[in-house]
Amino acid sequence: MKKKLILLSLFMTIMSTMLAQNAIVTTHWPLNKSIKDLAVGSAAYNSATASTTTCEGTDVKQMLETSVTFGSKLAFQATITPQSYATKEVTGLQLLRFKVQGAADGSNDYGMILQIKPNTTDLTYVPTKVGVSVASWVKNSSPAFEILLLKLNAAGEVTQTYELGKVNSHSDIDANYDDASFDVPATATASNDAWQVVVRMAQGYANGKNLAMGNVTLTGTATVGGSVQLSTFTATVVPEGAGTVSPAQTSVVTGDNVSCTATPNIGYAFEGWYINNVQVGTDNPHLFTISSDTQAEARFTKLEEATLTYGTDMPAMGSVSISDKGDNGKYNAGTVLTLTAKANKGHYFVRWEDGNGNVLSTSAQYTFTLNTDMTIKAVFAMVDNYRADLIAFPGAEGYGKYTTGGRMTDNRGAKVYYVTRTDDCSDDALVEGTLRWALRTGDDTPRTILFRICGTIYLTSKLSVNHPNVTIAGQTAPGGGICIAGYQMKLTQPNIIIRHIRFRAGDLAATSMSPLDVENVHHIVLDHCSFSWSMEENLTLYDTDSTTMQWCISAEGLYYSKNVKGERSYAMQWGGEHGTMHHCLVSSCISRSPRFNGVRNQAKPLEHDLHVDNEFANNVIFNWGNHNSIHGGENASADESSYDRVYMINNYYRPGPATYSGAAAKRYFVSASGDNINLVGEWYLSGNKFELSSRWAPNGSIWSDTELQKVNNDNYYGFTSDYASRAMNFWSVSPSQTLADKALLHELPYALSGMTYETADEAYRQVTQKAGASLPRYDEVDERLLAEAAGTRQPQYHGSTFESEKKPGTMITPAAGIINSPADITLSRYDEFYAKDEATGQTIKTQMWPWMGMEEGEQLMQDTDLDGMPDEYEKSAGLNPNDASDGYKLTESGYSNLEIFLNGVADGTIDLKPYKMTGIRTPQKDSNEGAIYNLRGQRLLHPHKGINILNGRKYLAEDR
């Protein structure tokens, strides 16, 4: 049996007319939807068995992929459903595949029927065109077929038959059926009932032949029109302005319903619905049945004015804000208001009470409707043992000393997050145990970050600390402690304490950035941290308020690295509104040692520094490489209230090899910035000291002890009269008496942070022994940096010679102490891990960071309840090692039990060894063996110039 492939495209346009009693509206819409999605499905009928199979919802394509005996009726019906007489589109009629078996007697019957019928008698229509396209017709033994248009009456009887086309031969197809379109005769009249388009085998083509139709596609559009009686519904508001109604006006089919909603404005209440002054309902929304044009009224009643008195009797504990302040506390009755209670630090919200003491709510945000006069008060309570005047930890000084970090400050308590792995993850897929997870997971409940690992945590992308109230405590980490390398960590939230952490960025990341960035935040303490090996600056800390940086090291900024800006070697950009930096070592950097941040205009608080008091005291600056290395402090704000005041007090300056080669001609305590006299800040210098008879003092008279003693005695010496000898300089403005009167402060204008100042000499001794991440123990980098600053060893490592990008053609060989890469340093032991060198795209095994692993006999502390304290310590302190809540509870001292433990470890009053040793016997030596003392019996970390005592014997330390 030969098969024929026919592609049939059907296009019909159906038009109708509907009579209406009142308004006449005619609407047209195209039929553009898949047949299977129409309201009525398909049916198949077999005359031989007189049975009907209902195929409601059936995929027409699946139903028609079959073979039926010739003489059967195979039809599907598409019912047109008007949707509120609006536009309806139907596209893509279903792809059909079917085959009709010829009858033996040669009779013909319907081969395929497409029937279209509306589901309402209100519509009448008539087709205007039918289109047919046939392809791949087989010439031989091809039975004829014909295309008919039939009109049916309500009983389903055929009342009109129109022959649209007939195929007798292949030539007919070629001539007439290539995308043919047939006009429906004008005699066809409109009908409420069905029209059928029939494709069937022609009479006489029987004898068992087949009419094979494959891939029959019925597509097209149809337009159905009609008219309908519409009525108008209108709703108005009485009195005007009292509220709104929806819908306010609409046209609907007469007899249909309309749902209308009334919404009162503030100060009004809905009363009811009225038609012709007769109330028809008080329900809202109300369902109206529309029999003719209808006008309804939504009536409202005006409410009385109400007064709200709100606040708290405990202003020291918290405050109350309101969503709408009204007219001096007066509101239209019915006004919806929201009160928000905010507890001050160390307190918490308890409840809302009315004027009679009745509890209204225990939620800090209370929303209510004000209908009558009310009094509402917020009740707060204080956290047990909380002290507002408690410093961050014993030994915290400066403007940031009242930072609370992870301490409990309200009734939420506090949490501990342990870092248990050194790898990194991403912000959108946090991995439990990573540093990123510990800092970013959870809510803003105060948290303390502790470590159950040691070594280098290499960040693979910027890590933004997105929660406030955080303490990062490295002093109890196992082994040699923690170093954060790779990408930057950025503090974006306030009230953060970081202790005993190393930040050594390195040069493998693709972008140049400081390893720690602190901007636009307040209350920050950096204590005993180490910053080094940055391609930009080792630390960025400015546009802040109430910060302290103490006992830290910033050293060995990378000089000629991969920074696109060229050579750098910067220690830090530092400042803020009320910032203190004390007892820090700034070592072996060409510039920004530090760069004091300037004042700029600001549109919002902490966007930029505007009112600056920067306290720079008891620091040690060693081996700076540029005579303008310490600079900044300009006032570039147009705000008349702005000021920039830098207080440089009792700092110690010790030259090094980079100073010898790069700053020989001039030597300044500071070279203040400001393009003109109107842009310079104010400066207070007192007690700052250049080291006398220094090993690396450059040649020249200004470096003689005689000249140095002059500026040591008077830091402003020679500012206006002796340009060559002065040690206080302005970078872009020539010295003058006018400048001196404007910019040089000879006394403090007011009390500063209240810290206790040491002399520059004493600060030097303390800093070179104690600065940096000393716990759990110093790494070999900080040990070397302290020894170099103390003079017990000389700077050794430096970068290779390069051509300057700032001065092309100039070759530069870095002085000792100035490195281009961490690879310039030789380590005795190193931390080994894999990291991506983003300049080459290769993952390499790096050995550039010092080893900080666990020594023989060390183990992790046992902390069963994960509250941050070892079990044995808790037992000795009378705490429960199985109760995590006792860690964050505040004691009578104001510190939590966890803080007491962490602070004790940091200041040496609590020895961690009993909690970290396995009990394995290891060779021990006398703790006093090799210890160095001065003549006053004080133990020294490194020998100091002069007479020292070693193993009970005096000796003279080598000259620095």
How would you summarize this macromolecular structure in one to three sentences?
With 960 residues, this protein is mainly beta.
Description:
The protein has about 950 residues and is mostly beta strands. The protein folds into six domains: about 15-225, no CATH class; about 230-300, Immunoglobulin-like; about 305-380; about 415-765, Pectate Lyase C-like (3 Solenoid); about 870-915, no CATH class; about 925-960, no CATH class. Helices cover about 10% and strands about 35% of the residues. The chain is built from twelve helices and 71 strands. The strands form 16 sheets. The chain has an eleven-stranded parallel beta sheet with strand order 35-36-39-42-45-48-51-54-57-60-63. Strands 37-40-43-46-49-52-55-58-61 form a nine-stranded parallel beta sheet. Strands 38-41-44-47-50-53-56-59-62 form a nine-stranded parallel beta sheet. Strand 66 (about 830-835) and strand 67 (about 840-850) form a beta hairpin. Helix 7 runs antiparallel to helix 8. The radius of gyration is 45 Å and the shape is elongated. The N and C termini lie far apart (about 110 Å). The relative contact order is 0.07.
